[in-house]
Sequence to fold (1132 residues):
Amino acid sequence: MDVGRRRRASDRRTARPSDRNCEVISSVLASAGAIDYGRVFADLAIILIVAKVASELFERIHVPAVLGEIVAGIVIGPSMLGLIDPSDAMRILAEIGVIILLADVGLEMDLKELRRVGRASMLVAILGVVLPMSSGVLAGSLLGESLNASLFLGAALAATSVGITARVFGDLRALSSTEARIVLGAAVADDVLGLVILTVVTRIVVQGSVDVAGVISTIGLAIGFLVIAGAVGLTLVPRLLAWVGNRAVSPATVGVLAAGITFAFSAAASSAQLAPIIGAFVAGTALARTDHHDRIARDFKALGSIFIPVFFLQIGIDTDVTKFFSGHVLIVAAVLTVIAIVGKMLAAVGAWGTNTDKLLIGIGMVPRGEVGLIFATIGVSVGVFQEDLYAVVLLVVLLTTVVAPPLLKWRLTSNDSASAEPEDENVTEEPVGGWVRVINDEVQLHGVPPSRLVLPLALQSSLHAATAQPNDALLDWMHTHRNSTLQWDEETSQMFLDVLMRGNARSWRFLDVTSVITRALPEVATAIRARRGDASELGPTHLAQMPTVEALRTKVGRATLADSSL
Amino acid sequence: MDVGRRRRASDRRTARPSDRNCEVISSVLASAGAIDYGRVFADLAIILIVAKVASELFERIHVPAVLGEIVAGIVIGPSMLGLIDPSDAMRILAEIGVIILLADVGLEMDLKELRRVGRASMLVAILGVVLPMSSGVLAGSLLGESLNASLFLGAALAATSVGITARVFGDLRALSSTEARIVLGAAVADDVLGLVILTVVTRIVVQGSVDVAGVISTIGLAIGFLVIAGAVGLTLVPRLLAWVGNRAVSPATVGVLAAGITFAFSAAASSAQLAPIIGAFVAGTALARTDHHDRIARDFKALGSIFIPVFFLQIGIDTDVTKFFSGHVLIVAAVLTVIAIVGKMLAAVGAWGTNTDKLLIGIGMVPRGEVGLIFATIGVSVGVFQEDLYAVVLLVVLLTTVVAPPLLKWRLTSNDSASAEPEDENVTEEPVGGWVRVINDEVQLHGVPPSRLVLPLALQSSLHAATAQPNDALLDWMHTHRNSTLQWDEETSQMFLDVLMRGNARSWRFLDVTSVITRALPEVATAIRARRGDASELGPTHLAQMPTVEALRTKVGRATLADSSL
Fold:
């Protein structure tokens, strides 16, 4: 992942000296040993302040904040304003940022959920990887790039960044739709597929072996690392952290240890010749299964809010903007963007047989976001990308990510106007055992309840959702009633207090996915939407974070106290 | 502050090459450009895991955790196990750690409190700086060190680390004693005096001017920077953050911006030829006056829990343990340790005229802790310290910090056995207007209440303490009754809920200082004590942190809900 190696290549050119400029090299070497901390702090200050100004501005014009940070990086970088020169210090901090980003993705990934991803999602995911990648490799080769470079171009097109899609679906109250479920499921599968592809492609490039036997053994090795590291992580890490958590004197110990484990897994991946982020991702999934999940997620969030912007700005800073104006770059970028969009659209046929809007699913898979960028930086670090191909991938990522939200909105609203609020026609009698029951770790809806029960059933289900998975019937019914107005009464208020006190992050996610929060608690919805706008909050599951809930708890606690005049 | 410069000196030696080893240098230069991220992550993993193991172990044998981290650094460093080689990457992270540490000290410093520091505290602080520093400079010169080195040795002896003392006083329920108040007040004044001395000494050494006019102008300049940066910070930063806080879409913006401002101030101090930590401290005091104080403190805490251990371990890693076995080092260290202890003891005469145990005050001022170490690293960075003097300061810091807690405990318990629980003899009638009143931003105690009122009056005062300062009469009365047992009834339970909901960090601090938490809520006291054990929680005011209170709020909220069966 070290973007640094690109600079290194030019260092090496100066490093073949004739005797007479030996003196010069020596003085460069002497000054290279000195760390200018003043410069480090100044760079860090500029990056953090500019990152936040940019993401707030882009947020207001409804463009994903992550794009704001990359553009800001280009603007302050050496090819435009020159406020910041690329430096090793910032690269190290950026690298820590991407480690935390991937650990966070792992931390929020529910392995159970991955197992539950349906046939449709899995097919969409596989087609969405195979189609753009194979076309990308072909197009790259035809346009005159080397096979290695084409492999990386193709791999960068395979990724899906689900954060942006999840947000648009959420804004339009469509997260509980079948389409959204298929897209989000496919994206989760995509994360894992993408890491396997990254591993394979990187090893092929590094070893130079492209024969079938070599590729198969490499795929085996990549999957082997994921399986072994995953097995070690999933069995040992939760036990270790539980043991430490019970004995630790200081409450900070668990969080720091979790960070230590994440860096250890990253180092292990690196010494197995894999990208460090793969280790970080595996560590994240292992940490997700510990009892201290919430505490670790909160600590990582605070770290990420500082370091992830450094990563995105560094991408912009490392971009040579003059490369954008080359005809070759623009042609390759245009071709690849078309492949990126069409490839994902075609992947939607994987949802064949479901009663869904295939076009909507296709559009939902389009944004590449941060995942494509991570591939590009790795391409640079293993030496197959030069500045022009880096610029190509950056352009493709920017275009696919900008184009998706308005298309999604257009498609969703034109669907919506066709379907009006359903009448309570098919309503059935309440079955024996109640409308909502938990069977086999699944929250099941039985019968068709009347629409006035949306709020109480949603609150009841959200409490169950803390430990079980809502079934399709429940989500479908909630989605049908996504626009019905919700009325609070004494009973639902009490149920809501109960969710506040006993619910967990998954309960809140259920309420958010079913648009109950947007409708019943618009203030809270704004707060949650704001969090989603953060570049550091790219995962689809970062929907309801503890601080919001905590603030609510305090608020409600205070109100309860005042009302009951204890 | 860059410890790196020490290595740099040796780099420079290899950097004066004859022509024939030019080739070698070139290859070193080429490899110097490459960042080995795998190594960075491995080092970080080792440092974080070892830091937590060490601090937990030391905590259990009642030795301050920060010493555990330094010793661990020595053990894993190149002079012993060699698990970690000194690297620029870790130095940069360590430097970020010390910036966050000092910003945190500033963030927790109440400027109002500094203004209220009494005559006794101020005299103890000044004597406690002047006596050890002048004797240290003299001893250094007599023992054959250069004037510059002696100046830094003296400066390192001037510092007081109050975290360790505050903790021992707290453990023995003596934080509300007059002695504790004098020591803590003196330590706060010491922080500011220490930064001025550091600035002056650094500039004298860097400029080489030691004439009276030069020293005076340097002192002026140092104070000038503190005043100007302080004025800019205190007027602009709160307004800027309030403006941003009201408009920001993302809740993370304020915390990231605060970090950006901290690094900007550090860079400004650095470009004014001052230590970056001075800028970080000033930024911290400015951030303390913003509305978002709590949010910023929480974000900095999470950052600090990762980076501050890197700083302390780096100190150990940079220590050449073989230097400890030199006769000269041991002699200088022994002499300076005696000066360090006796100097602070004598400073206690500054409390002349108060009815206090001067010996207890003197012992309380003895630990040097992290402040002396920061001075030592700066001494290395400006080139006046070689590895032997670095080892000397390290030994002095370790000895003074280890020796103080048992001495404090001995003195406190031998005092305690002399004074029994007072009878309710002098009890007066409740005055008109109540026992506790807030007048001129001061929480005042009127009359002498009976001992059974300790709990209700403490809870009532803690709510007032959220915005006003408890006066001496109140603290003295609380201290007299520090061992009386507390009984909860319906009224006090309700008052406690009120404190939970409406109190702030200062309310909790008041309850902790008066030992009410230890006696009435032993579980909470354990949690708070554990936080104090953290090396990242060295400030005297880190006594009651929001997470503890939040956890409590949730707990109480739940209980309230269940009880009132809402």
In short: Chain B is about 70% helix and 0% strand.
